[in-house]
């Protein structure tokens, strides 16, 4: 025989537990009623407002971060645009830095041709970052980031040469 508890609206299957359920439910209901009927103090109101604000702020930050993670890094342009120097590339064509720049660009192009899909996009993204088109960071999908980090490793010595040697840069720009 099922007994119905008037306080919690549950069916109690055992007669022995019916008084305990009713007493427990009655006690919970009286506590809830007492909490509602007593006026809040200023400190309690301020605490509730601060808690609500913090919960909303954390939810907003979590939503914003999750959307940024899902969006990934902005796609790089398909063809990198490296800025050209004002010096004439034909003047230094016979020099060793010019030939080293050409060789480095040829090796880079050969390495880049072996990259596919997201890894290629990551490598091109890093190349454009070296050219100063955007910040040097590798955020995005796993494959994108791997391509970006590989390009960073591959370009580490080339970056310094591009920055300090106009002849190297001229060779890089004219492979």
Task: Describe this entry's structure for a reader.
This protein has a two-stranded antiparallel ribbon. 65% of the residues lie in helices and 2% in strands. The longest helix has 30 residues, at 42-71. The protein is elongated, with a radius of gyration of 34 Å. Helix 3 (96-113) crosses helix 6 and helix 5 (142-164) crosses helix 6 (166-173). The protein has six helices and two strands. It starts with a strand and ends with a helix. With 175 residues, it is an all-alpha fold. It has helices at residues 18-37, 42-71, 96-113, 117-130, 142-164, 166-173, and strands spanning 3-4, 11-12.
Which term fits the overall shape? elongated
Helix-strand sequence: EEHHHHHH
Helix content estimate: 55-70%
Number of helices: 6
Query: What is the CA-atom radius of gyration, in angstroms?
Result: 34 Å
Order the strands across the largest sheet as they lie in space: 1-2
> What does the largest sheet look like?
2 strands, antiparallel
Mean pLDDT: 76
Total strand segments: 2
Structural class, from secondary structure content?
Answer: mainly alpha
| First-last Cα distance | 92 Å
Stretches where pLDDT falls below 50 for ≥5 residues? 85-89
Strand content: under 5%
Strand and helix layout:
Layout: E1 3-4, E2 11-12, H1 18-37, H2 42-71, H3 96-113, H4 117-130, H5 142-164, H6 166-173
């Amino acid at each position: 025989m099922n007994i119905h508890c008037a306080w919690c609206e549950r069916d109690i299957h055992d007669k022995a537990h019916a008084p305990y359920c009713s007493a427990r439910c009655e006690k919970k209901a009286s506590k809830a009623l007492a909490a509602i009927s007593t006026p809040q103090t200023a400190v309690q109101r301020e605490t509730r407002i601060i808690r609500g604000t913090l919960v909303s702020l954390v939810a907003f930050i979590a939503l914003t971060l999750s959307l940024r993670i899902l969006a990934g890094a902005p796609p790089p342009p398909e063809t990198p645009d490296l800025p050209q120097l004002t010096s004439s590339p034909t003047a230094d064509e016979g020099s060793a830095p010019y030939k080293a720049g050409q060789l480095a660009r040829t090796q880079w192009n050969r390495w880049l041709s072996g990259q596919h899909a997201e890894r290629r996009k990551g490598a091109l993204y890093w190349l454009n970052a070296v050219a100063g088109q955007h910040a040097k960071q590798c955020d995005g999908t796993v494959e994108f980031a791997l391509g970006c980090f590989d390009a960073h490793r591959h370009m580490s010595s080339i970056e310094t040469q591009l920055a300090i040697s106009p002849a190297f840069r001229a060779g890089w720009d004219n492979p």
